[in-house]
Design a protein that fits this description.
Strands 3-4-2-5-6-1-7 form a seven-stranded parallel sheet, with helices on both faces. A six-stranded parallel sheet has the order 8-13-12-9-11-10, with helices on both faces. The protein has a five-stranded mixed sheet with strand order 17-16-20-19-18. The longest helix is centred in the first third of the chain and has 17 residues. The protein contains 28 helices and 24 strands. By secondary structure, the protein is of the alpha/beta class. Helix 7 runs parallel beside helix 18, helix 16 packs across helix 17 and helix 24 packs across helix 28. The chain binds one DNA strand through helix 6 and helix 7.
DNA sequence: GACCTGCTGCGGATTG
């Protein structure tokens, strides 16, 4: 078999394989070679990092190129990160060394003369980012056909990072525009480690003919996984000694549940009372739970190389600070470091080098280290609080146990507040533990969130529209619609919506119409298209640089910068602001001595999928004791189950009391948002937390209005307080924004489904009417 | 109730 595929390759490629001392060509690589040589199909290759994906794509591609050199770029590799492109560039250069196939790279850090050389003498393989490809259209539109006309392959690396988001739609549009000028339709090869649904990836690769995509999956070696969840209980007003035992938690759960069953429970007051009297004498004992957590992290991650993920940069900074305070006295201490997107490039590169060197290092990190650079031997992965998606959990777990025979290790550390805080009713269900268990179950079952293909991506379409006009100098509206919508990736935008968008852009002086009918960029559009920021479809925040002497430390949003004299933690060190230079957006700092707080990085929340929330309900209904959960966690889970069962929460999902109805629909973020807006439209005050919605209503009869009223997704989206989300949303009329938000924030079907379910549970039959359970 | 990614060409002055 192996001879088969190998013999298809160009003799020069065969020689290169010998010279590099390869012992075998892997199965997935052989199949890729056969697919490229014996069919005309696109290709989707799924394999672990270091599973030979890149070679699977490039062995046959290079071989084809060596057979027929042309005077334009012949293959494009698109990568999401500059660092990844640099890595692959080196590998490809080695492979192509004796084949006379030029290898070029183009991204923001590549010197101008190299880019110029490619433009003057195009050929071979080009490694590029989506944004740099965009810059080719914008700045050398007239040259694009000459430079790219013989492109016959497009390789998309880390493809999962492009699915279902603005950057991916942007890339898809660029590739569609490219395909319009190449002499033959380029074949696309997608590479990914984790793909939820290969069918959807196939639609991304070729929306007109997804069945022409051959999916190859590398047989992954069976690997051992060690996985555990450890729990910490904390309260701002209470410094824990030993956590409350199972009996105390059960008693608390039962008391609270009894109150809710009676229907006249003032939970805000009662909660405070119960916990204050129970735990008052524990207050004097010193450590807070963050310190306990830091101590455990030192124990678990104090040797070899590890990654500890967290979903908040501020939390990571404070944990590192805590860890450092506990380890400074130890001689020859194992290094704990930090890596996230607000630290300067040089700081991050230093950490990356250290991690790759094998020198024992543990990095606190955000999703910056979730993909991309290959850190050799990660022994174990830590996760502070469960992530928000299964996809993220899978990706992070996959960073350890990469060597054969070595287990992948993940330790999740969850923090829960004691119910004395005003965490809302959801707090009584210990939602972090529930989510940790639910995500783990779904991960084991190999379920991953599908991506959302209902979105309109109007903002990205506007960016591409401006790019087309900049490239060509002017186009007819019909040609634009064909390029972007009917033949491009913006298929959810129909002719009517497209026309409305053009009018909106005309009103804002982004575009104007010439007497001959051509649309061109107007003054404001020209200005936007000339900005450096134009090349990316996603929104970048305006940030200030933090500098100590000549060293850049990182970037912060202006809102997170303390006044002169104020202090902050960044990169695990304490700093004091000495001078702020407004013009150049520079903040000069000197080392501080204090125990400062990390800056308030202000992020956006995002969606939890309904499937995850439903699984959380199932976890409450079941009574297994997950083996991966520690004793404290099992105690809290048991208490949450007791409360859920005895309060009636699992029967109909509703609790009534104090003039309020608290409803757990067990659905995801989008459904909760929709239900809240429906209540708003019916003049019922509503607020939501992680899992539930609180209605200001006396009886469930009041909620009948939500089922009776005729809603449209648009009528609900209209009620959103903030309607701009994406980069060019400000260029769209209110009417268009409502249409966009109706598509990406509202799920009317699911909300009505949830309401019907609620109605049925009260009736016990299919009447679709809400009866008051208290009546 | 969070995170991440990316990014001109050109002309003129200076240096070896």
């Amino acid at each position: 078999m192996s001879q088969d595929a190998f013999s298809l390759l160009h003799s020069g490629v065969q020689r290169a394989i010998y010279e590099m001392g390869w012992k075998e060509i892997r199965e997935v690589q052989q199949e890729a070679i056969r697919t490229v040589y014996q069919t005309d199909n696109h290709l989707l290759v799924c394999a672990q990092t270091a599973g030979g994906k890149t070679e699977a794509a490039f062995l046959p591609v290079i071989s084809k190129l060596a057979d027929a050199p042309k005077d334009s770029v012949q293959a494009i590799y698109v990568g999401p990160l500059k660092a990844l492109i640099n890595d692959q560039f080196r590998r490809l250069e080695d492979l192509c060394e004796h084949l006379e196939i030029p290898v070029h790279r183009w991204h923001g850090d590549v010197p101008g003369n190299q880019k110029k050389r490619l433009r003057e003498n195009p050929g071979g393989i080009l490694l590029i980012t989506p944004e740099s490809l965009e810059s080719n259209f914008v700045n050398f539109g007239a040259d694009v056909p000459r430079v790219y006309r013989h492109v016959s392959f497009v390789v998309i690396d880390e493809m999962h990072s492009f699915l279902g988001n603005e950057r991916g739609i942007h890339l898809r549009s660029l590739l569609a525009r490219l395909g319009a000028i190449t002499e033959t339709k380029p074949r696309i090869i997608g590479l990914s480690a984790t793909l939820a649904e290969p069918e959807e990836a196939a639609i991304y690769i070729d929306p007109d003919a997804p069945d022409t995509v051959t999916a190859l999956e590398a047989a992954s070696a069976q690997r051992e996984v060690k996985f555990g969840v450890k729990t910490y209980l904390e309260s701002p007003s209470w410094k824990p000694g030993p956590p409350p035992g199972p009996e105390a938690l059960q008693a608390l759960a039962e008391t609270l549940a009894a109150g809710f069953r009676a229907g006249d429970f003032d939970w805000k007051q009662e909660q405070g009372e119960i916990l204050d009297s129970d735990y008052a004498d524990e207050r004097e004992t010193g450590n807070d739970s963050t310190t306990l957590l830091a101590t455990d992290l030192i124990k678990a991650f104090g040797k070899e190389t590890n990654l500890i993920f967290g979903d908040s940069k501020a939390l990571l900074e404070s944990l590192l600070n805590n860890v450092n305070q506990q380890t400074t006295s130890a001689s020859g201490a194992h290094a704990f470091v930090i890596h996230h997107g607000s630290l300067s490039r040089s700081q991050r590169e230093e950490i990356e080098t250290r991690l790759k060197s094998g020198q024992p290092t543990t990095a606190f990190c955000s999703s910056t280290l979730e993909m991309g650079i290959d850190i050799g031997n990660v022994r174990a992965v830590g996760q502070i609080n469960p992530p928000w998606t299964v996809a993220s959990m899978v990706q992070r777990l996959g960073r350890s146990g990469r060597r054969a025979g070595v287990p992948a290790i993940m330790r999740v550390f969850t923090q829960e507040n004691t119910p004395s805080t005003r965490a809302g009713l959801s707090g009584l269900l210990y939602p972090n533990i529930l989510r940790a268990v639910a995500l783990t179950r779904l991960m084991v079952r190999k379920w991953v969130e599908p991506f959302d293909n209902r979105q309109l991506h109007l903002s990205t379409m506007v960016q591409q529209l401006m790019s087309c006009l900049k490239q060509t100098g002017g186009m007819q509206a019909g040609a634009l619609f064909e390029t972007l919508c009917s033949k491009g990736p913006f298929r959810n935008i129909d002719a009517g919506l497209f026309a409305t968008t053009l009018r909106s852009l005309g009103e804002k002086e982004i575009i104007e119409q010439m007497p001959g009918g051509d649309l061109i960029l107007a003054l404001e559009g020209e200005r936007l298209a000339n900005e450096l920021d134009f090349y990316a479809a996603f929104m970048g925040s305006e940030e200030w640089t933090l500098r100590h002497r000549n060293e850049d430390l990182g970037q912060l949003p202006s809102s997170a910068i303390p006044p002169v004299g104020g202090g902050l933690m960044l990169g695990g060190r304490s700093w004091r602001v000495e001078e702020i230079v407004e013009n150049s957006q520079l903040v000069y700092v000197i080392p501080g001595k204090g125990k400062d707080a990390a800056p308030a990085f202000r992020g956006q929340g995002s969606e939890v999928h309904s499937r995850v929330v439903r699984e959380m309900k199932t976890v409450l209904e079941d009574d297994d004791e997950p083996a991966f959960l520690d004793e404290a966690g099992r105690g809290l889970l048991a208490a949450a189950r007791t409360f859920a069962r005895e309060s009636g929460l699992l029967d109909d999902g509703c609790l009534c009391g104090g003039g309020e109805i608290i409803w757990f629909p067990w659905r995801g973020t989008r459904c909760l948002t929709t239900l809240k807006l429906m209540a708003d439209a019916c003049d019922i005050k509503a607020a939501d937390d992680a899992l539930s919605i609180r209605f200001k209503a006396k009886s469930t009869e009041d909620l009948q209005a939500l089922l009776d009223k005729d809603f449209t997704a648009e009528s609900l989206a209209k009620r959103l307080p903030v309607k701009t989300r994406e980069k060019h949303d400000e260029l769209l009329s209110e009417e268009l924004l409502i249409t966009a938000r109706a598509a990406d924030q509202i799920d009317l079907d699911e909300a009505q489904d949830a309401l019907m379910e609620l109605a049925l549970s009260f009736r016990g039959e299919s009447s679709g009417k809400l009866d008051d359970p208290g009546a």
